[in-house]
Design brief:
The protein is α/β, with parallel strands linked by helices and 694 residues long. The protein is 37% helix and 19% strand.
């Protein structure tokens, strides 16, 4: 089966390299891709309307004989008018951009069937650019049924150079090629329990249905495809969780009471969410199998202190902790925090980055010091880095690291596996979190630590720019700092948006010439970016002009104003992450959205709430799962059809059925589950890892 499904689409009858290249723009590269390229709509073309009974504004299917063909040339453009006639009357068909081959299609006396919207013109009713087909065979005075007429016809999403008739032909061939080889993937009993059709029935009815599907209700065939997508994902996540739970890890029980010492020494009270996250983490660490926990917390919710609490437990148990940060600036930031909080309770803290001057000395200490915490960047992956007794790995902003990178760190133990604790500052709605992280234990921190002042957010129009520049001047004059964010690095003629480099030149010379203005963007080398961010934190710059590269991590308490230009170009969750770069200190902070375009209700949400989870829910609702996660092209993991918001009930049922199946066959080794096991292992594994960074 897999050989046929994986067959490149160009080898399907009638496709070839040229058409295959166009199809690839729609994500159709293989026969399987074609099967899952579902129609966006359907047209009922079973009924023919006599030409005298046509009504303006209605979609109609007509059949008649060509009574006249009138090609016209207007300048360089060709126009074509064809008159169809039947016993009741006639109808004009128009093409305003006619190519020679189209004109040659029609001959006086030939029979044609056509479909389109009937419109009123000065000369009566007409159809402009209808879909048509020459009729060579009739039965009882009607055209013989084809894939384009006389039936319910699928309508697919198009792209330039790819038309409906071509798509239907390709789909018909792909269906005929693959159907004999399609094996049923879902257990027979499950299909019966859920009253779902087979895989073959589903694809046949979806692409070429006998009856017109209801537009507002998912058909049973579509539900069956969606359920399989969800079922395979949930099985994969559950199998991964099983593997995690079989990995032996050292129980970390903190016999020295270092966690208690840390909590006592903290200069602030933990929130209830922090306390709960820390307690379940402590319980996980005390078990003999590897912890895999994700701490999901909004910007500034205090995830770091929870991770340092876990490091204290590891140290108090006689084990080391490796803390991995995505950037050097962030690693240094965590190092300073850890040194201040853990240094006084007997936990040695080291920093290991590419620019470390004492890097060799730190490497030697890791091979001796059994209770230390080492904070670093990608330098921690290097083969030369050896640990004496690694018990815990902490990954900050886990989506910034690939599965291979994390794996390199987890393998730095002789036996078993260290415990794994990951964090993310990206609020993900619960439905989506349970889907993407079903193989992990999840802790959510929503409460903000006491003392954090709210960030005022307001929207300004371009005409308010002079007032805004005056506000930036006042902020900097008071001794504070400001960010100005742009969505582009360089100017774009197509988009006509302001860019970071262009505005840095203009603002530093013309508007803020008396201040120190820095620039950072994604095209700069890593060490250059780190240098600028460090200098901004050290107050060597008053204003930092940036692209969205500062979205995560940098903590500058002295920065109290965030300006985001063209905010309509960014998702709500990204705007929220950017806003979180201010409000890190005790001074009141503000975020200004400077919008050129019409201010939508979507943007106004930013002025109403600071709760990242509320914003994420709204972002997901408005933009859909693919765009919300920045994965519109590849989609959610395997979700070519399913939508986790619309199909939440199917998702929950898939989760329940996956757990039930694995309770009966934990490794999916029974013969009846062979097909589904292959799908779990192969079909979307890479997509899941790419989406989540592992």
């Amino acid at each position: 089966m897999s050989d046929v499904l994986n067959c490149p689409i160009q080898f399907v009858k009638g496709v070839g390299p040229k058409l295959a290249k166009i199809l690839s723009k729609k994500g159709i590269s293989t026969v399987e891709d074609a099967l899952y390229f579902l129609p966006r709509d359907y047209e009922d073309r079973r009924k023919l309307t006599p030409l005298a009974e046509l009504k303006a504004g209605k979609f109609s299917v007509v059949f008649g004989k060509v009574s006249s063909v009138k090609p016209q040339r207007i300048g360089r453009k060709h126009r074509l008018e064809v008159t169809l006639s039947d016993l009741s009357g006639s109808l004009n068909l128009f093409w305003f951009h006619a190519y020679p081959a189209l004109i040659e299609e029609f001959a006086i006396g030939s029979l044609f069937v056509a479909a389109g919207e009937v419109r009123v013109s000065a000369r009566g009713l007409q159809m402009a650019h209808p879909e048509f087909e020459k009729v060579s065979e009739t039965k009882n005075g009607k055209p013989v049924i084809s894939i384009n007429f006389g039936r319910v016809v699928p309508v697919y999403s198009e792209t330039e150079g790819l038309h409906q008739k071509t798509l239907r032909r390709v789909m018909k061939e792909a269906l005929q090629t693959s159907l004999p080889h399609l094996k049923e993937s879902l257990p027979e009993q499950l299909l019966t329990d859920l009253a779902l059709p087979s895989l073959r029935q589903s694809f046949t009815k979806i692409h070429f249905p006998d009856e017109l599907p209801k537009s507002d209700i998912l058909s049973e065939s579509v539900k069956r495809i969606i359920f399989e997508e969800f079922f395979i994902l949930e099985l994969g996540l559950a199998l991964r969780k099983q593997r995690h739970q079989k990995e032996k890890a050292p129980p970390l029980v903190d016999g020295q009471g270092k966690l208690a010492a840390l909590l006592k020494a903290l200069p602030f009270e933990l929130t209830n969410d922090q306390k709960e996250a820390l307690e379940v983490t402590r319980q996980d660490l005390g078990r003999a199998f590897a912890m895999s926990r994700l701490i999901q917390g909004d910007v500034g919710s205090g995830k770091t202190v929870v991770t340092l609490g876990a490091a204290a437990v590891a140290s108090g148990s006689g084990f080391q902790t490796a803390f991995m940060a995505p950037t050097e600036v962030l690693a240094q930031q965590h190092y300073r925090t850890a040194k201040a909080l853990l240094g006084n309770i007997g936990v040695p803290v080291y920093l290991l980055t590419q620019s470390n001057t004492d890097k060799k000395e730190t490497e030697l200490l890791l091979q001796k010091d059994e209770t230390c915490l080492v904070i670093g960047t990608h330098a921690l992956f290097q083969e030369s880095i050896k640990f004496k007794k690694l018990g815990l790995v902490i990954v900050d902003e886990q989506h910034r690291f690939g599965v291979e990178q994390r794996g390199l760190l987890l393998k730095k133990v002789d036996k078993g596996s260290p415990h794994l604790l990951m964090t993310t500052a990206t609020p993900i709605p619960r439905t989506l979190a349970l889907t993407l992280y079903g193989d992990l234990d999840l802790s959510v921190i929503r409460q903000k630590p006491q003392g954090r002042k709210p960030i005022k957010t307001r929207i300004l129009k371009d005409k308010d720019r002079p007032k805004l520049y005056q506000q930036i001047t006042e902020v900097v004059t008071r001794g504070n700092q400001a960010y100005i964010i742009y969505p582009l690095v360089d100017e774009s003629e197509k988009l006509e948006l302001r860019s970071a480099t262009e505005m840095h030149r203009r603002l530093s010379k013309e508007v803020f010439s008396e201040f120190r203005v820095g620039l950072v963007h994604g095209r700069m080398k890593s060490d250059e970016k780190e240098k600028v961010l460090s200098e901004f934190k050290e107050k060597k710059f008053d204003i930092l002009i940036s692209t969205t590269v500062i979205e995560v991590g940098i903590d500058v308490p002295n920065a109290t104003l965030m300006v985001i230009e063209h905010p309509e170009r960014l998702g709500l969750s990204q705007l929220h992450q950017l806003r979180g770069r201010v409000g890190r200190g005790s001074t009141a902070s503000e975020c200004v959205l400077l919008a050129d375009a019409f201010v939508t209700e979507r943007l106004r949400i930013m002025t109403k709430t600071e709760d990242g989870f509320v914003i994420a829910e709204e972002d997901l609702r408005i933009r859909g799962p693919g765009e919300f996660l920045g994965t519109r092209q590849s989609g959610l993991p395997g979700f070519r059809v399913g939508n986790i918001l619309r199909d939440a009930d199917l998702l929950q049922r898939a989760k329940e059925e996956a757990e039930k199946l694995l309770s009966q066959d934990p490794e999916l080794i029974q013969t009846s589950n062979a097909t589904i096991r292959n799908l779990v292992e192969n079909r979307w594994k890479q997509k899941i890892e790419r989406l989540r960074g592992g």
